[in-house]
Amino acid sequence: MHTALIAAPSYDPIFNKIIDDLVKQEWSIVPRFFPSALVTALHNELLDHAEHDGLNAAHIGKGEQRTLRSDIRGDETRWLNGESQPQRDYLDLMETLRQRINGELFLGLNELEAHFALYAPGTGYNKHFDSFQNNNLRRITVVSYLNEDWQNEDGGELLLFNSEDEVFERVLPKAGTLVCFVSEAIPHEVAITQRQRASIAGWFRVRDTSDTPPLIIP
Question: From CA 96, how far away is CA 66, in angstroms rounded?
Answer without folding.
Answer: 32
